[in-house]
Design a protein that fits this description.
Shape: globular
CATH class of the largest domain: Alpha Beta
CATH superfamily of the largest domain: HUPs
Helix content: 25-40%
Number of domains: 2
Mean pLDDT: 95
Strand content: 15-25%
Largest sheet: 7 strands, mixed
């Protein structure tokens, strides 16, 4: 059986039919906040249950509890604050107890009941969530651009924000039906922000050997410069699945959510989100959601052990490498040969080869995947944007 939603109930805050028409008309007369692409995605994720049990952007009590305890104020595990920021000038147009319209690209996206407007401390957020206040950390740098107030309260979604990958985007309600229809009782979810190399394929198939199905759920949305562009990730995975996976064993769907690069905390968040999609297991790789040298390579594994009540089983799969003696992808637990036989798959080395137009060797990347990646003139995010 698929996992129960986090908190026991899948949130549904999507207005439909006449209720939607009414809210759409009323929204145009309300005070409004214009959202970034990432905040619009967060609003949709709240409404469709991706962030269950949240029914809106969190208030100060939950916010402080998440920072200090990595739990909501009701003691439910939660590690990343889902918050809506607003400027001093913006909050002058409404008060606590008002309804406001959340707009995206000039169109009403949702209606939100304002329960609370509160201040926050950037340094405290950075040091507790990212474990650093170093402005070179992409999450910290992005945090510095957020506005001075947070607005908390429940919302109702009027319409989904536009999605470039609509054909490969499923909501939790849909994945749960699909998993049940396929008769999957155990589902391993895989989070990624990269195109697949053989190391990724190895850990995915290792998980699939003892679960009924694999849920590949790449993140699309804001990422730092040097990461792969969304369309490259999507097309590369399509090629991998078409040529190297049984169709009945895999479900592929994108997740519109920004990368925060919060390392272990974000790994827990990624697991909770996939639990809401119905996954029973979550693959936790080396340096999950990490960047630079801010987190230890297996630090996320230790943090998962602090959450026995998470409700989804972490799968700790060690880093894979190609062993010339074994003649295949292995890891240190199953390969007895010394380092001289081991070829590590370096993401940095792969990026360098691709930037130079070179084809990665087949022990690093499937040729069909390499063809897709190399077909893009520039497959990487070039510069940070405010989205």
């Amino acid at each position: 059986m698929v996992s129960r939603p986090h908190g026991g109930r899948l949130v549904d805050r999507v207005a439909r039919g006449r209720a939607r028409e009414r809210l759409l008309a009323e929204a145009r007369e309300m005070p409004r906040l214009e959202l970034s692409a990432s905040l619009a995605a967060d609003a949709a994720n709240i409404a469709h249950g991706v962030y269950s049990p949240l029914e809106g952007f969190i208030g100060s009590e939950d916010y402080q509890s998440v920072l200090d305890q990595m739990r909501l104020s009701n003691d439910l595990p939660w590690t990343i604050p889902i918050v809506l920021d607003a400027s001093r000038s913006e909050i002058k147009s409404f008060e606590e107890g008002d309804e406001i319209a959340l707009y995206y690209r000039g169109e009403p996206l949702a209606v939100m009941y304002v329960e609370e407007v509160y201040t926050w401390d950037r340094r405290e957020y950075a040091e507790k969530v990212f474990k650093t206040s170093d402005p070179a950390h992409p999450g910290v740098a992005r945090l510095a651009r957020r506005k001075e107030y947070f607005v908390g309260g429940p919302l109702m979604l009027i319409q989904d924000p536009p999605e470039r990958f609509e054909k490969v985007r499923l909501w939790p309600k849909e994945t749960r039906v699909l998993f049940e229809a396929r008769g999957w009782r155990t589902i391993a979810a895989f989070q990624t922000r990269n195109v697949p190399h053989l190391g990724h394929e190895y850990v995915q198939k290792a998980a699939l050997t003892f679960t009924d199905g694999l849920f590949i759920n790449p993140l699309v949305g804001w990422k730092k410069p040097g990461d792969y562009r969304d369309e490259v990730i999507v097309e590369a995975y399509k090629a991998l699945i078409e040529h190297y996976y049984p169709r009945t064993s895999v479900v592929f769907s994108v997740l519109r959510m920004e990368m925060r690069y919060a390392g272990p905390r974000e790994a827990i968040h990624h697991a909770i989100v996939r639990k809401n999609f119905g996954a029973t297991h979550f693959i936790v790789g080396r340096d999950h959601a990490g960047v630079g040298n801010y987190y230890g390579p297996y630090e996320a594994w230790d943090l998962f052990r602090e959450f026995p009540d998470l409700g989804i089983t972490p799968l700790f799969v060690r880093e894979a490498f190609y062993c010339r003696k074994c003649g295949q992808m292995v890891n240190e637990k199953i390969c007895p040969h010394p380092e001289e036989y081991r070829v590590r798959i370096s993401g940095t080395k792969l990026r360098k080869m691709i930037m130079e137009g070179k084809r990665p060797p087949e022990y690093m990347m499937r040729p069909e995947v390499a063809d897709v990646v190399l077909s893009f003139p520039n497959p990487f995010v070039e510069e940070a944007s405010e989205d």
